């Protein structure tokens, strides 16, 4: 077991692009064995296809039943001599299978629209692939003995028959090869009986022996190999007076002897089964058609109706895309205009027929307007961190539980990030439908800076709440306990990962982590909260920072945007990480997923904010506005200073407050002995 464990660890240490390095890949695991591993909805694994060697199958469990989807392999040939291999189910294509699985697991996208199957719980292997291969080899031998009769019938139909020397006037050709030119199109076709649809036409098929002819010689025909040359795939009856046979009984057939068929057969049909109107439906008997084991995937044509979307769709479906021979095949778009016809666009009103492209506006001014901000809690010309305002805020927060506070933070975050309440004028200025898309674009720089500003101010507010508690250590641990519960409410109740990461950032500040007495009191007085923070919230936050969205279960209202914002604003979030480029790739892929599903985030946020489970409090909403935090921390005049100067001064204030709560104990130095 130790050697197997070590071998498995070596496999899992391979590159993440290598399918072998992922524990949810089970190699040649059979369909029945895969189904026996599933227990609940969302379970999944990837295995090799038994019916199409070289392809992969996603096996999953959904709605109390197993499902199997063959992963479609696409070969792009944009120019001669160059090809690119991609993998997909119905929509997005990826360079490798692990990237495809990460996309569907992290984004909770259904594998197919028809089934609605969603995968999120991987079934991992506990042994190396070598052991699985050996087990499947042993099981296949036992299965072959059980199904011996069926396999014997198949072998008799597929193996090459020899022709008898007693019947020199005919050639018995049972299994013509699928050909391309003068060579077999695929070595896997040797020994297999092709369908009439993919072989030559019926007029070119010649059976060498008549079925009703009685044979005088009832003895077994001697086995004799056929030696042949030429480019024709089918043989005609051999004349009586041919050249002598070889000593072993073989006959040499040459293209110049007139022994080959006089007319070249047509090439095999190249039809796509992706479009049901082009060919008859395939058989659904699983003994005849192994593909019936798989659930149907329908490659989707984009349904968007915009002019730009239509151009993109036409370009996509007219590209030189090919699927491998073991899967399906695309035809050229211009040759199948009827099959590849885009869906008809709905009629639009007359006023939008004159639509024209308008360049998005590049914002250069922050959305936080201090000159227009009117406060209910702050006096005019307030000073930084006024004690009366801090006391009023503490009483305000004590009157609200963690869930209500989280909903107020969600409301303000959605306004700043432009997730809800986005007007048509804002969409026209941005050029996109939401801030989740704008932050990924070059002209979204101002919004990225505003979001980073808000994120840091939330963290500073949490730090002030802890360090401003000058009571006993037990009282500070209670404040810490409430803030951890707020982080949990932001994650599980408000589904707001933006503010959740800000609270977690505050709890990880050096001025907070050094309060050993406070953390010790938290573990003693609020043990469950301390365990929640250490065992669940911190690992969850680390996974988010690594760009791993698979830890997010269920829909979200505001995604985790901070790593992307830092990367696009020049602050490298992977500078101190050992993963380097892979981490940066995961961060960008996570941002791409957020922009792609922006409408889902908007809809979920709108549902939460209009559910009626909370009643907005104007004072509490103001307390979470960014303009309020700017004036509270730096006063009326200091709030307009540069960001770097403000942050540097406030960091010094936090350090002073932290040292006052738990002073650093200086160990007296022992006098050096006199020499």
Summarize the structure.
One of its GO terms (molecular function) is phosphotyrosine residue binding. It comes from Notothenia coriiceps. The chain is of the alpha+beta class and 675 residues long.
Explain this structure to me?
The protein is of the alpha+beta class. Among the domains are: 14-136, SHC Adaptor Protein (2-Layer Sandwich); 387-661, Son of Sevenless (SoS) protein, Chain S, domain 2. 39% of the residues lie in helices and 7% in strands. The strands form four sheets. The chain has a four-stranded mixed sheet with strand order 3-2-1-7. Strands 6-5-4-12 form a four-stranded antiparallel sheet. Helix 11 (445-467) crosses helix 13.
Per-chain topology:
Blueprint: H1 2-12, H2 31-35, E1 43-48, E2 56-61, E3 66-70, E4 72-79, E5 82-88, E6 93-94, H3 97-107, E7 121-122, H4 129-146, H5 148-158, E8 179-180, E9 183-184, E10 226-228, E11 251-253, H6 307-317, E12 321-323, H7 387-398, H8 402-416, H9 424-430, H10 435-438, H11 445-467, H12 473-492, H13 497-507, H14 510-513, H15 516-525, H16 527-545, H17 562-568, H18 581-596, H19 598-609, H20 618-623, H21 626-638, H22 643-661
Parallel strand pairs: 1-7, 10-11
Antiparallel strand pairs: 1-2, 2-3, 4-5, 4-12, 5-6, 8-9
Helix pairs in contact: 8-12, 11-12, 11-13, 11-17, 11-22, 12-13, 12-15, 12-16, 15-16
């Amino acid at each position: 077991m130790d050697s197997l464990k070590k071998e498995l660890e070596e496999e899992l240490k391979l590159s993440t692009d290598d399918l072998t390095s992922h524990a949810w890949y089970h190699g040649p695991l059979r369909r029945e064995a895969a189904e026996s591993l599933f227990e609940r909805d969302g379970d999944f694994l990837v295995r090799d296809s038994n019916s199409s060697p070289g392809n992969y199958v996603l096996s999953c469990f959904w709605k109390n039943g197993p499902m199997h989807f063959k992963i479609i392999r696409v070969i792009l040939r944009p120019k001669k001599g160059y090809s690119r291999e991609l993998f997909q189910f119905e929509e997005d294509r990826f360079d490798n299978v692990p990237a495809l699985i990460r996309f569907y697991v992290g984004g909770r996208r259904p594998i197919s629209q028809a089934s609605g199957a969603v995968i999120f719980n991987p079934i991992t292997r506990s042994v190396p692939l070598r052991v699985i291969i050996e087990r499947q080899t042993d099981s296949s031998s036992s299965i072959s003995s059980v199904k011996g009769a069926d396999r014997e019938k198949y072998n008799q139909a597929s193996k090459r028959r020899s022709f008898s020397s007693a019947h020199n006037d005919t050639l018995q050709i049972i299994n013509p090869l699928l050909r391309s030119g003068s060579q077999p199109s695929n070595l896997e076709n040797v020994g297999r009986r092709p369908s009439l649809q993919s072989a030559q036409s019926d007029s070119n098929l010649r059976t060498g022996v008549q079925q009703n002819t009685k044979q005088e010689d009832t003895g077994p025909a001697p086995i004799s190999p056929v030696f042949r040359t030429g480019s024709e795939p089918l043989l005609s009856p051999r004349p009586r007076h041919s050249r002598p046979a070889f000593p072993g009984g073989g006959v040499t057939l040459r293209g110049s002897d007139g022994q080959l068929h006089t007319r070249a057969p047509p090439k095999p049909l190249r039809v796509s089964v992706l479009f049901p109107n082009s060919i008859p439906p395939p058989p659904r008997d699983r003994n005849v058609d192994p593909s019936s084991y798989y659930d149907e995937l329908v490659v989707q044509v984009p349904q968007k109706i915009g002019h730009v979307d239509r151009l993109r769709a036409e370009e996509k479906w007219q590209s030189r895309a090919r699927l491998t021979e073991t899967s399906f095949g695309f035809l050229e778009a211009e040759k199948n205009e009827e099959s590849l016809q885009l869906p008809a666009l709905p009629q639009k009103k007359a006023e939008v027929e004159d639509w024209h492209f308008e360049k998005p506006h590049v914002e250069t001014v922050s959305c936080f307007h201090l000159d227009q901000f009117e406060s209910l809690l702050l006096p005019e010309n307030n000073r930084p961190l006024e004690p009366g305002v801090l006391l009023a805020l503490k009483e305000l927060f004590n009157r609200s539980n963690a869930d209500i506070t989280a909903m107020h933070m969600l409301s303000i975050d959605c306004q700043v990030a432009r997730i809800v309440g986005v007007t048509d004028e804002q969409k026209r200025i941005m050029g996109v439908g939401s801030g989740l898309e704008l932050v990924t674009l070059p002209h979204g720089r101002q919004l990225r800076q505003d979001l980073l500003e808000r994120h840091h101010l939330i963290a500073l507010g949490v730090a002030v709440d802890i360090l401003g508690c000058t009571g006993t250590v037990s009282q500070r641990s209670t404040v810490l306990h409430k803030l951890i519960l707020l982080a949990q409410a932001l994650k599980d109740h408000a589904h707001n990962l933006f503010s959740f990461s800000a609270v977690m950032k505050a709890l990880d500040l050096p001025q907070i982590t050094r309060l050993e007495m406070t953390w010790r009191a938290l573990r003693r007085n609020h043990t469950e909260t301390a365990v929640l923070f250490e065992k669940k919230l911190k690992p969850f936050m680390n996974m988010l920072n690594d760009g791993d969205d698979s830890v997010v279960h269920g829909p979200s209202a505001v995604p985790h945007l901070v790593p992307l914002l830092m990367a696009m604003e020049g602050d490298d979030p992977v500078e101190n990480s050992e993963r380097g480029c892979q981490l940066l790739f995961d961060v960008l892929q996570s941002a791409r997923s957020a922009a792609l599903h922006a409408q889902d985030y908007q809809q979920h946020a709108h549902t939460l904010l209009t559910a009626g489970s909370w009643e907005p409090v104007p004072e509490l909403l103001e307390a979470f506005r960014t303009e309020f935090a700017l004036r509270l921390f730096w006063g009326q005049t200091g709030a307009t200073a540069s960001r770097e100067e403000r942050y540097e001064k406030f960091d010094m204030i936090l350090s002073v407050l932290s040292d006052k709560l738990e002073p650093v104990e200086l160990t007296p130095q022992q006098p050096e002995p006199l020499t």
